[in-house]
Each structure stands twice: as C-alpha cells, then as structure tokens.
C-alpha cells in the first residue's frame, strides 16, 4: 500500500493550487482526479474571467492552459481517471477506484456539480450547465425555450435568452423567486416570457424535433403541457461530498470546515474550494486562497515537534 504525505482529491483550480503550495512548502503530495483531464469547472467557463487578479482571461480554458504550464503541476504528475471512493477517518486509509493509500493528510477539493431533474433523464434537448447564455444564446434564435429555476442564474439566463428566443417559459417550483430584485425587475419587462408558478416537470416526450413537457402544478389555470425546442435547467448545485459520508455537511452537501479548512471529523482531513464553500461563495479566487491556507496549516502541523 502506498504511503502519501498529502493526498489531494480533485484536479480543479483548488486541488491544483494545493499541489503548487505543497511543492512550494516542500511537502510530498499526490493528486488524483476522477475525470480523464484536469481543470474541473474551468472547462465550463465560456465567459471572460475578470475577477481573478491581476489578469483577465478570455475564458476558463485560457486560464487552465496557463495553470498547467506551472512547473509544480508537471512535477506532481497528477493521476487521472482515479476517483476517491471512501475515506476511513479512524485509520487514515483512503480507497480510490485504482488503489488504497495510507495518508498523513487529505485534502478534499472535489468541487460542486449541478443538481439534476430526474424526470428529464435521457432527454436530448436539455442544455448542459456549461451552456453560456451570454456567449451562446444566439443559437436559440426563434426557438421556444423552457428555463427551470427561480434563483439568480435562472433569471439571468431567461433574460439573456429572451433577446433571441421566440418564447421563454420560466418554470418555478415555489410561489416566489429567490433572485435579486434587479433580476426580478428585468424579468417583468420581458414581453416574450411567461412564468409558471409552483410547477414541476412530471415527464417528457419527444415530438419530432421538439419536446413536450408534462407539467405538475398547484394551479388549475396553467397548461398541463408545453412544447419547446430546448430546456435549460438552472436549479442550483451541490457539493461533491457523497464519498466523504462521515464528515459533517451544510446546505446542499457542502463540507463544513474551520478557519484552517479542516473538516469536522478529524485533524487530518481538509476541504477547500466549491465542495466547502456553498454556491454563493463559489469562486476561483477563494479556492486558490483556501489552498494556500490548508497547505500552510498542514506544513505547520508537520513542523511542530
Ligand atoms: C459557467 C461557470 C462560470 C463561472 N465563472 C466564474 C468566474 O467568472 N469567476 C469565478 O471566480 N468563478 C467562476 N465560476 C466558479 C468557479 O469555476 C469555481 O468556483 C471553481 O472552478 C471551483 O474550483 P474547485 O477546484 O473547487 O472545483 P472544481 O473545478 O469543480 O474541481 C473539482 C474536481 O474534482 C473532481 N472530482 C470530483 N469528485 C471526485 C472524486 N471522488 N475523486 C477525485 N476527483 C473528484 C472533479 O472531476 C473536478 O475535476 C464559474 C463556474 C461556472 C460553472
């Protein structure tokens, strides 16, 4: 069984930054990434990145190209297509899809994933979360689109899409919107948008090139079915924490940490980036900063006599 000083789970910007800090502070580390590539959500960012000082990046891929050129990443040699399966809090054993490790310290940087709508499983006309309504909404020109959700992202998407689409239906599960007032005010001015309150999708059916959505609603006055060209779910995200089941969570499966990024269950398990932050604070700069704090704290633990 391999012994690892610091095992990092996740090759997004948080995990990669932690690897850089391990190199900088002279800690030996191993990074495992579930996917067959590094970058995590960076590859989904099609917008310009203006909030990771000091540079402005055209998109997430441009940032990732820069990051992967960092000499420390090459030195770490991340292991791809290897996912954490379980972690034993009492024995410090970590199981992955390829191996078992005995670790001194563990960093969970497994990020967050979009929530899914089971009733739409297998539907080919669902736009993925990486669909950018700022950069790609023109693809929906003269199409009918159902946007699902009642938060900021749903309203922003509906507003962006409405500039090109023929018609936008916003399906909201509750009887109110959770979005900021500026988005709600903008929504009210859109002539080609209608809102379905207290509405959920029950099932779907392909109709030639379009999709019929069967709706379940608290109101009798709303149609039980709509037919659209595309569906864009914007119903939030959850932390990728299911494999860390003994650790305490908050909100949508985000790992709880203290001020040094240590998780609840143990002194040797840290979490950083989106898996520990919750949707409102998900950001590149926070993940990078937390990586420094976690690894610095680990190095101070090791130095202590
Ligand atoms: C469309 C979009 C636009 C955005 N725009 C901005 C922006 O302009 N500015 C900004 O600051 N932020 C932006 N963000 C948010 C930002 O991308 C995230 O906050 C950041 O990338 C999170 O990094 P992370 O390393 O914590 O997680 P992630 O990037 O999610 O990386 C986690 C990695 O862990 C891997 N993983 C998951 N489970 C396991 C497992 N069991 N074992 C091993 N590996 C695993 C995943 O495959 C993934 O590669 C945007 C996000 C999106 C989706």
UniProtKB/TrEMBL annotation:
Record's keyword terms, sorted: Flavoprotein, Oxidoreductase
Named cofactor requirement(s): FAD
All copies of domain FAD/NAD(P)-binding, residue ranges: 5-285
InterPro entries attached to this UniProt entry: FAD/NAD-bd_sf (IPR036188), FAD/NAD-binding_dom (IPR023753), Ferredoxin-NADP_redctase_2 (IPR050097)
Record-level Gene Ontology MF annotations: oxidoreductase activity
Keyword Oxidoreductase: yes
UniProt subunit comment: Homodimer.
PANTHER family: THIOREDOXIN REDUCTASE 1-RELATED-RELATED
Protein name per UniProt: Thioredoxin reductase (NADPH)
Species this chain originates from: Brevibacillus centrosporus
């Amino acid at each position: 069984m391999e012994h690892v000083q610091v095992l990092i789970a996740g090759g997004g910007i948080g995990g990669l930054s932690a690897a850089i800090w391990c190199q900088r502070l002279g800690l030996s580390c191993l990074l495992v990434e579930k996917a067959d590539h590094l970058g995590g959500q960076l590859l989904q960012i099609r917008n310009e990145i203006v909030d990771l000082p000091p540079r402005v990046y055209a998109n997430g891929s441009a940032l990732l190209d820069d990051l992967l050129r960092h000499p420390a990443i090459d030195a770490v040699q991340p292991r791809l297509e290897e996912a954490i399966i379980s972690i034993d809090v009492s024995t410090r054993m970590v199981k992955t899809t390829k191996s078992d490790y005995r670790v001194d310290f563990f960093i969970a940087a497994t990020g967050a994933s979009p929530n899914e709508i089971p009733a739409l499983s297998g539907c080919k006309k669902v736009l993925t979360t990486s669909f950018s309504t700022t950069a790609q909404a023109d693809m929906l020109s003269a199409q009918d689109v159902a946007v699902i959700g009642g938060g900021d992202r749903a309203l922003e998407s509906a507003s962006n899409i409405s500039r090109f689409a023929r018609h936008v239906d916003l399906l909201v599960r509750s009887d109110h919107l959770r979005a900021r007032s500026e988005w709600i005010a903008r929504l009210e001015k859109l002539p080609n948008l209608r809102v379905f309150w207290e509405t959920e999708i029950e099932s779907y059916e392909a109709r030639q090139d379009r999709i019929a959505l069967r709706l379940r609603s608290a109101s009798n006055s709303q149609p039980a079915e709509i037919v659209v060209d595309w569906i864009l779910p914007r119903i939030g995200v959850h932390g990728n924490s299911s494999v860390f089941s003994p650790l305490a969570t908050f909100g949508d499966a985000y790992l709880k940490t203290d001020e040094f990024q240590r998780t609840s269950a143990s002194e040797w398990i840290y979490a950083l980036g989106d898996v520990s932050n919750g949707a409102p604070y998900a950001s590149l700069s926070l993940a990078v900063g937390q990586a420094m704090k976690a690894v610095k704290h680990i190095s101070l633990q090791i130095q202590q006599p």
